[in-house]
Amino acid sequence: MNNTAPLPHTRFAKYRAEVCSEDEVKHLVHTFYAAARDDAMLGPIFAAEVKDWDAHLTTLIDFWSGLLRGTMRYHGKPLAQHANMEHLTPCMFRRWLTLFFATTESMGNPALQEKADAIALNIAERLWKSFAESHAIVAPQL
Ligand code: HEM
Questions:
Q1: Does 76 contact ligand 1 (Cβ within 6 A)?
Q2: 91 lines ligand 1 (CB under 6 A)
Q3: Alpha-carbon dihedral of residues 127, 27, 68, 62, nearest 10 degrees?
Q4: C-alpha to C-alpha distance for 27 and 8, rounded to whole angstroms
């Protein structure tokens, strides 16, 4: 098969379509985590947990590049990692989403914004449910 041929159209094609460049992924991750580190609610959590910011940002760029561009460079276990944290609340997840949505909106790429926001909301719900289950909390919807 010719490697340069476009992928055949399937009902999953929209999930594979590239909505942004690698530079936009980097911009998204750097801008969002700058806001999160500066945030009164989320900043102290990141300050306490993240020892190496360069490594963390590289991991998050791989994570979002995989989700938005299909590059498949991320192989971590975010569910387990967040479930092991202490004292996360629905309010914190909502704050995380508010900052994330403001970041994607500021980028002027509606396709990226729509896809990244939908994925973030879906994963935030899953992270919160998994955190709540492992801490025996009855979890309200985000
Ligand atoms: C209350 C909301 C959240 C907080 C406070 C939070 C906090 C953190 C912290 C502190 C780490 C770093 C852990 C470490 O380096 O040891 C981390 C890692 C990570 N977070 Fe979150 N997070 C939140 C929500 C989310 C959401 C909604 C997503 C995805 C949409 C996400 C994706 C990730 C990923 C992919 C990693 C890297 C895991 C790895 O190292 O493989 N987080 N988070």
A1: yes
A2: no
A3: -70
A4: 30
Q: Check the CA dihedral 46-54-80-31 and report its sign.
A: positive
125, 141 in Cβ contact below 8 A?
yes
Exposed (0-12), middle (13-18) or buried (19+): which is 13, by Cβ within 10 Å? exposed
Task: Determine if ligand 1 sits within 6 Å of the CB of residue 88.
Answer: yes
Q: What is the DSSP string of 115-128?
A: HHHHHHHHHHHHHH
Q: Which atom of ligand 1 is nearest to the CA of 63?
A: 35
**Architecture per CATH, 20-134:** Orthogonal Bundle (1.10)
Tokens of 125: 């719900």
> What letter represents residue 87's amino acid?
H
pLDDT at 1: 47
pLDDT at 139: 77
Residue minimizing CA distance to atom 9 of ligand 1: 46
pTM flag (> 0.85): yes
Q: How far apart are CA 135 and CA 142, in angstroms?
A: 16
Q: What is the pLDDT of residues 40-54, one digit of tens each?
A: 999 999 999 999 999
Instruction: Describe the crossing of helices 110-134 and 22-38 by its angle, rounded to 10 degrees.
Output: 50
